[in-house]
TrEMBL record:
Protein name per its UniProtKB record: RNA polymerase-binding transcription factor DksA
HAMAP family given in the database record: DksA
Subunit structure: Interacts directly with the RNA polymerase.
Pfam (any one): DksA_N
Cell compartments where the protein resides: Cytoplasm
Family: Belongs to the DksA family.
Chain ranges passing through the membrane: none
An annotated Gene Ontology molecular function: zinc ion binding
Keywords: Cytoplasm, Metal-binding, Zinc, Zinc-finger
Basic and acidic residues bias locations: 40-57, 108-121
Limits of the Zinc finger DksA/TraR C4-type domain: 78-113
Length: 121
């Protein structure tokens, strides 16, 4: 992977992280302003369910930020874009679709087949 490609993916990852963090701030602000002291029990239950779903989404995004940070570290170390299992380059189309990918498409498919076999036991 050349320097221009690395710079492109670094910017893509940093922009993605920034977007997630700004969405997270908006969620926190919204949750702080929303009133949980609703008179109607159905409205309160609906509001609490919405908050619970939003918090689960934010937890998944927190894990995604960790993967983004890991990808940026791999760029810094010169390891970005190479499969962790085979050492072969990960295709640019795969990285474009999933910038945090650590496995080539073939290795990922093989990994998923192994998971399916073990899950079916």
């Amino acid at each position: 992977m050349n320097e221009r490609q690395q710079a492109y993916f670094r910017k893509k990852l940093l922009d993605w992280k920034s977007e997630i963090l700004s969405q997270s701030k908006l969620t926190i602000e919204q949750m702080q302003t929303d009133s949980l002291h609703l008179a109607d029990p159905a409205d309160r239950a609906s509001s609490e369910t919405d908050h619970s779903l939003e918090l689960r989404t934010r937890d998944r995004q927190r894990k995604l930020i960790s993967k983004i940070d890991s990808a940026i570290r791999r760029i810094d170390n010169g390891e970005y874009g190479y499969c962790e299992e085979t050492g072969e380059p990960i295709g640019l189309r795969r990285l474009e679709a999933r910038p945090t990918a650590t496995l080539s498409l073939e290795a990922q498919e093989q990994h998923e087949r192994r998971e399916k076999v073990h899950r079916d036991d």
